[in-house]
Structures are given as structure tokens and as C-alpha cells.
Amino acid sequence: MTCYDRRDLGLLLLRLGTGGVLAAHGAQKLFGWFGGHGLEGTGQFMESVGYAPGKASATAAGLAEAGGGALLALGLATPAAGAAAAGAMAGAAAVHVPNGFFAQEGGYEHAASLGLAAAGLAVTGPGRLSLDHAMGHVFDRGWMVPVALGVAAAGTAVVVGARTRRVRRRTEGEQEALFEE
């Protein structure tokens, strides 16, 4: 008989909560569920905040959130799922940084919390109450953690860096236009 301990139950709760929230946010972007705007509306928003092309950015963010969240909740491919979700949340946090930390002011608090929880799960692992454990950790090997987090960090740095340059150019262009008037 297998006896699950507090750690396994705690990881299950953390996976279900974090994964469920991420999956719901991704479904808003991809399908317009739960009051979301779907790919068209989210794509327009992504363009407005500097992620281009907007629809492709919305698709990537939606897949990372929905897919990463669902996999985290199931405890399957935990390193890759956590890394993908953490990367998506880093991209979301970049949009909210100018508003400060707290979510009530439009800050990055929520995105940072979800991203850190997802990264923590990638590092810690899913626990014994997971599909990874049931499948013998085929998709949850020790070497996968730094690889998944490294790939996600590199990809996120490229995407957020490109966005930052776009936003900076747009802001400079708007300032120049004001001086010309």
C-alpha cells in the first residue's frame, strides 16, 4: 500500500490551483472562454502592448498558459510545463511592470506569483500524486529541469527584449511627433 505524505498532498493542491488558473487564462486567450477575447481580441491587445505579430503572440501565450497549466495540474511533463508557464508569465509581467507591483494598480503581482509557482513546481517536481509519477517519470527527469528552464528563459528574453525595443521606438516616435507639432 502506498502512503502519501503532506508533501504529496501539498504539491497536488499547488499544481491544481496554479495549473487551473493558468489553463483558464490560456483558454480566455485561445477560445474566448471565461470572459476572454479569443485570439482576435487578444491578438489586438498583444499588438497594442508591443508583442508582434499580435495573433501569433496571443497563440503562443495561450498555448503556454493553457497547455502548461493543464500539464501542471495533471503533473505531466512537469519541468517543461512549469517552464512554459513561467515564461508566459514573465512576458505578462513585462507588460505590467510600469504599473508597479500590486495588481490593484495594474501591476505584475499576479503574473509574478503564477510564474514563480510554475517555476517552483518545475524545480520541485509534481509529487507522487501525479501522472509523471504513475508513468515512472519518463517526462520528468532531473536533467530536464535546467534544460526546460534554460530554453524558456532564453526564448522569453528574446521575445520580451524585442517587445521592449518596439515599445521604446514607439514612445520615442510619439515624443518626436509632439515636438514637431
Number of domains: 1
Overall geometry comes to: elongated
> Low-confidence parts lasting 5 or more residues at pLDDT below 50?
none
In quaternary terms, these chains amount to single chain
Distance between the termini: 78 Å
Binned strand content: under 5%
Question: Which value, in Å, is the CA radius of gyration?
Answer: 18 Å
Major sheet = none
Topology as a string of helices (H) and strands (E): HHHHHHH
Judged by helices, strands and strand pairing, the structural class is mainly alpha
Mean of pLDDT: 95
Helix content estimate: over 70%
Number of strands: 0
Number of helices: 7
Membrane topology: Multi-pass membrane protein
Main location: membrane
Family: Belongs to the DoxX family.
Keywords: Cell membrane, Membrane, Transmembrane, Transmembrane helix
